[in-house]
Write a structure and sequence with these properties.
This protein is mainly α and about 160 residues long. Helix content is about 50%, strand content about 10%.
Amino acid sequence: MSLQSLSVEDAPQPPELHTLEQAAEQEDCQAFALLATTIDWSIYRAIDLTRAIDLALALDMVSLARELAHQGSRIFPEDKSLQQAMAVLAPPVVRGTRPAQSLHLTAAQSWFKEHASQYTGQWVAVCGGTLLGSAPTLQELHERLGAEGQTASTIVVKVLP
C-alpha cells in the first residue's frame, strides 16, 4: 500500500505532522518513531493520531501503532476509530484451561490399578473408570468399540506383562 494513498486531504498540516509524513514517505523508521513518540497528541485531532497509526502500520511498526492507539484511546475516549484501533492492535490474550479429561483420567488410572492384571497382553479401552472393551489387537478393539467408543476421554492401552 502506498503511503500517498493514505493521505488525509484536509487543511494544511502543522509542521510536526508534515515532518512525520515525510519520515514515513522516506521510510525513515527511526525518525518516524522518534517523532511519533514525542508529539503531544492531545493538541491534535483524533484523525491526526489515526493517520499516524496508519502510517506506522504501513511501515510495519506494529508496536508503535499499538502504543499510539493506546495513547489515542486515553486522549480521545469517544473516538470510534481510535477505540477500534486499540481493540484490533491489542496484544493477543492467551487463556489457559484445565484438561477436561482429568476426572476421566483419574478414574481410568484407578481401574487400571485394580484390573489391568486380568488383561495382560490385551488392548484395553477404558473411559471414566469403565471398561469399554478388550481385544488381542488394536484393530480388533477399534472394530469392537465402533465410533461411539472412540472419544477424547477414552484411554486405549496395551497391558504389558
